[in-house]
Structure formats: C-alpha cells, structure tokens
Write a structure and sequence with these properties.
Length: about 300
C-alpha cells in the first residue's frame, strides 16, 4: 500500500475521472493530493510539464487527463484527438520518469479494444483486431499510452500500471449536446425536451448497441485499490460487470428526468461498437467491486446536472 502521507498527483483532477480519483484518495486517507488545473498548466506544453513535475516530485501519479468526447466529436475532429492525447501522455510520462515518480497509473479506455472482440472482453484481446472507426484516433492514442507504460517498466524497472475503464458517467461529466458521451448527452436532450414540452426526442443510432456503464466514483475507488494492490505489465479492466441496450438506457434516463414523450431512433447516425462488456475477473480477484447501482447513479448524475450544468 502507498503511505497515506505520500504525495499523490492527479493529472486531470477537474475532469470526470480525475475528480473522482481525488475524492477517492481523500476518502482513503491520503493527505497530500495535488495536481494543476488546465488553467494552471497546459499538459501539451512539454517544457512546462517537466518544470512542474520536477518541482512537485510526487511519489505516485494518476494520469487521468485526456481529450475526450462522444462519437460525433471523435469522428469530426480525429486529428485533435490523436495529437492532443499523444502530447499529454508522452509529456506527463516522460516528465514523471525524469522526476522519479515511483508509481504511475495510466487510464486507458475500453475503446482501445477491437470492435468485434469476444464478449466479455478480456485484457488479452488488446491488439487482436481493428478498433471502432469512429473513435480510431482516440483509441490509437490510448494504445500508445499503454505501450509506453509497458516500455517504462521494461527499461526503467518502475512499477507503473494501466487500467482499462469502461464507459464512465457521473457528477462532473460533460453535458455539451455535441461533444458529450451517451449518458450526459441523453440527460441533456431529454431534460431540454421535458422542459420545453417536446413530444419526441431523437436517439442517435438504432438503440440496439449495448454498453457497460461505470459510475465515476466506482472508478475512483478502483484506482486507489489498484495503486495499493496491483503490479503487472498488462492493463487491467475496470467495469460494472453488466451492460444495457442504448434504447433501455434512454428509457431509464427518461424516467429519471420525467420525460414522458416518445424516443425515436435516428438510424442515420452511427451505432459504433455493437457491444462492449469487460471481463472483470482479475480486478474482482484483487478484492474490488463496484457499489453504485445504475439507476441510483443516473439519479445522482442528474441531480448534479441540475445544480451545476443546467
């Protein structure tokens, strides 16, 4: 276990994943949790990142910073997604190695797995097929980060690790109607429709793809658990263990929001990967399991939206 007085740096501390890691770290007793905001430090600025981490010299670092977005954002701006994520990852990891960061956890993504991987997806599926084309640029950047962690372990002997979270949602998410992921995007559209008295809401795609969803606070607890208990060159999956059809998810969110109209599939929109459910036997074997039930988590997320993003 990491000493609770060790300095823990969270890159991306204001994002959905990073803010959850900060909450979990405090709950676990860490007393020195730090991390610059994007206003204070541009992680794409290599010289600035080196100067900052050499000054901070944390014992451990969680790399949760990334440029993220839904299908529309990924497919319309792939150059931005691959360039900015590669810059962030390389700069932070190179600077962390120079600063002597002993323990680093890199957050990969389940979208790095092949589009047609066997279900549930095992960690061994990585690089065994082509990724989903609509988020290819982001997936390739994440794969590069996974490989950098493995390379650092091989060359420098540092116990750095990678985790592969499934689709996240929760307080602090991005509810932009154009750049958001499925849960915040549906919350925004269904809320707006209910508020304006609309009778129908379009659901992007057919509604048949299935997605596994994990509340951000469950990811936060998993990250702290892995920092304490995991040391292996292979990435480890972090998921809830069950999935839901997008159409059923939309109906759940409609119930939370209070929308009583029709939800109409827009089959002109891409579906993305048909199913994405992670095999989580390895992390559960380490003694971790999720605690936030989906309906409870959706209600929690909507309450945060009403208070902060509405």
């Amino acid at each position: 276990m990491l000493p609770r007085d060790a300095r823990l740096y969270v890159a991306g501390r204001r994002g959905l994943a990073g803010s959850a890691v900060v909450r979990a770290a405090h709950a676990a007793g860490f007393t020195d949790v730090v991390g610059a905001t994007s206003d204070e430090l541009d992680l794409r600025d290599r010289a600035a990142v080196f100067e900052h981490l050499l000054d901070q010299r944390p014992t451990a670092l969680v790399l949760a910073a990334a440029r993220v977005g839904g299908i529309l954002a990924n497919s319309s701006r792939p150059a931005d997604f691959i360039s900015e994520n590669l810059q962030i990852q390389v700069n932070v990891m190179d600077a962390a190695a120079r600063a002597g960061v002993r323990r680093l956890l890199f957050l990969g993504s389940s979208c790095a797995y092949p589009k047609f991987a066997g279900q549930p997806i095992r960690e061994s599926s990585l690089l065994q097929g082509s990724v989903e084309p609509t988020n290819e640029a982001y997936a390739v950047a994440k794969i590069a980060g996974l490989m950098q962690v493995r390379a650092v372990r091989n060359q420098l002997g540092l116990p750095w690790i990678s985790a592969m979270p499934t689709n996240l949602y929760g307080p602090g998410d991005n509810f932009d109607p154009h750049d958001s992921h499925v849960v915040p995007g549906l919350i925004r559209r269904l809320h707006d429709a209910e508020r304006h008295g609309a009778g129908t809401v379009e659901l992007w795609g057919s509604g048949t793809p299935r997605r596994e969803l994990l509340h951000a606070d469950d990811l936060g607890s998993a990250v702290i658990h892995l920092l304490d208990h995991y040391d292996d060159p292979e990435p480890i999956n972090v998921g809830s263990g069950f999935d839901v059809a997008i159409s059923d998810l939309a109906a759940m969110i409609a119930g939370v929001v209070g929308f009583q109209g029709l939800i109409v599939p827009d089959r002109r929109r891409p579906d993305g990967t048909p199913r994405k459910l992670l095999e989580t036997t390895r992390i559960r074997g380490l003694g971790w399991q999720p605690t936030v039930e989906l309906r409870e988590g959706l209600a929690d997320t909507y309450a945060w939206f009403l208070e902060h993003a509405c």
